[in-house]
From TrEMBL:
E.C. code: 4.1.1.36, 6.3.2.5
Residues covered by the DNA/pantothenate metabolism flavoprotein C-terminal domain: 186-407
Textual note on the cofactor: Binds 1 FMN per subunit.
UniProt KW keywords: Decarboxylase, Flavoprotein, FMN, Ligase, Lyase, Magnesium, Metal-binding, Multifunctional enzyme
Taxon lineage: Bacteria, Bacillati, Actinomycetota, Actinomycetes, Mycobacteriales
Region Phosphopantothenate--cysteine ligase, annotated ranges: 191-415
Bilayer-crossing regions: none
Stated name of the protein: Coenzyme A biosynthesis bifunctional protein CoaBC
Domain Flavoprotein: 4-168
Required co-factors: FMN; Mg(2+)
Length: 415
């Protein structure tokens, strides 16, 4: 990505120490980063830390370097402003248009995308005043992340925890790639996403699996949650990925477990996104003890396979039968290769017709393509015959484009 000018604002909360990782990640991505903390933020993390990580001076007041007019120039020159953590006080001052320090003045003069990552106690996050301030900022075009749930200061737990640094920097990179704000257009929509590969046990040690990392499905869940959706994520093997903020995660292992989880949660969902790589077959019988290799010449064990249920096609049938009355859109994913019978798109078109889903995301797989990498590309096929290319980009960017298409489909189908 082209080198961009990013301002990282840091408000005064215990989570301010996590901002150091955000600064480091954005700097290592090749961007020019300047940290603008509040006075109270420097009581948690010293200016020297932010200066060392960013390579730029740190000031809090509007009277430092007055000849450069920093309270105006910093915001004017920025390509992105990220505030992490954004405390209840900072959100209130930003919503009220205050300009009583360098950070709030920068927010008033910035005409670039602005990303707030809230962090505060649950009672503060859920207070009507904070809710109104967040709604005001979103209405003006700012992106206010949904906070994570978990351990807060002391023994308290609940929503209000700062999302992990990687999640903040990933969303920041997405805003830079989009060049505009992330719409908050899925509020009230219930989404069910599947991600990762399934593992079909052969014995207590071995399994049949695939190369899916779960990164694309996690990106789908993350983007949809930050656009306001109520997201449940059913995760198979995901190679230790950090669960997305504001997402309810259900961990499963096998295709049968994933099928049961989808069956349980689909009736309440408005959108189903089947990004998981579900095994087509499983061993007919899983050994209860490890299968021993034994001496050479004694023959090799034979594994009989049986077909797993097709979860995607089953969901389409259930909707047609009236069992999923709330379901408005079903999105499938297809990892394809060409062969003697046709290319990737040939097989993808046949799969879309066979599965009967509304949208099908198609990825050509191969060495360093689709699986176990951070970038992706492919095509988006629609049941109405429309096809569009998904140009190469990070899996978060690809997810954002797919979600744009899902939102468009929901609006069209609603009339």
């Amino acid at each position: 990505m082209e080198r961009k000018r990013i301002i990282v604002g840091v408000a005064g909360g215990i989570a301010a120490y996590k901002a150091a990782t955000v600064v480091r990640q954005l700097t290592e991505a090749g961007h020019s980063v300047r940290v603008v903390p509040t006075e109270s933020a420097l009581k948690f993390v010293g200016a020297a830390t932010f200066e060392a990580l960013s390579g730029n001076p740190v000031h809090t007041g509007v009277f430092d370097d007055v000849h450069e007019v920093p309270h105006v120039r910093i915001g004017q020159a920025a390509d992105l402003v990220v505030v992490a953590p954004a405390t209840a006080d900072l959100l209130a001052r930003a919503a009220g248009g205050r300009a009583d320090d360098l950070l709030t003045a920068t927010l008033l003069t910035a005409r670039c995308p602005v990303l707030y990552a809230p962090a505060m106690h649950t009672e503060m996050w859920l207070h009507p005043a904070t809710s109104e301030n967040v709604a005001t900022l979103r209405r003006r075009g700012s992106v206010v992340m949904e906070p994570a749930s978990g351990r807060l200061t002391g023994a308290d737990t609940g929503p209000g925890r700062l999302p992990e640094a990687e999640e903040i920097s990933t969303l920041a990179q997405l805003l830079l790639a989009r060049g505009d704000a992330l719409p908050y257009d899925l509020a009230g929509v219930k989404v069910l996403v599947t991600a990762g590969g399934t593992r079909e046990p052969i014995d207590p040690v071995r399994f049949i699996g695939n190369r899916s990392s779960g990164k694309q499905g996690y990106a789908m869940a993350r983007v949809m949650a930050q656009r306001g959706a109520d997201v449940t994520l059913i995760a198979g093997n995901t190679a230790g990925l950090v669960d997305p903020a504001a997402v309810h995660v259900v961990h499963v292992g096998s295709a049968a477990q994933l099928h049961d989880a989808v069956s349980k949660h689909a009736p309440d969902a408005n959108v189903l996104v089947m990004a998981a790589a579900v095994a087509d077959f499983r061993p007919a019988h899983a050994a209860t003890s490890k299968i021993k290799k034994g001496p050479a010449g004694q023959g090799e064990p034979t594994i009989e396979l049986v077909r797993n249920d097709d979860v995607l096609a089953g969901a389409v049938r259930s909707r047609s039968d009236g069992q999923l009355p709330n379901m408005k859109a079903i999105v499938g994913f297809a990892a394809e290769t060409g062969d003697a019978n046709g290319d990737v798109l040939f097989h993808a078109r046949a799969k879309l017709k066979r599965k009967g889903c509304d949208l099908l995301v198609v990825n050509a797989v191969g060495e360093n393509r689709a699986f176990e990498v951070d970038h992706n590309d492919g095509w988006l096929l629609s049941s109405d015959g429309n096809e569009s290319a998904l140009e190469h980009g990070s899996k978060t960017v690809i997810a954002s484009r797919i979600v744009d298409a899902i939102v468009g489909f929901l609006r069209t189908s609603a009339g």
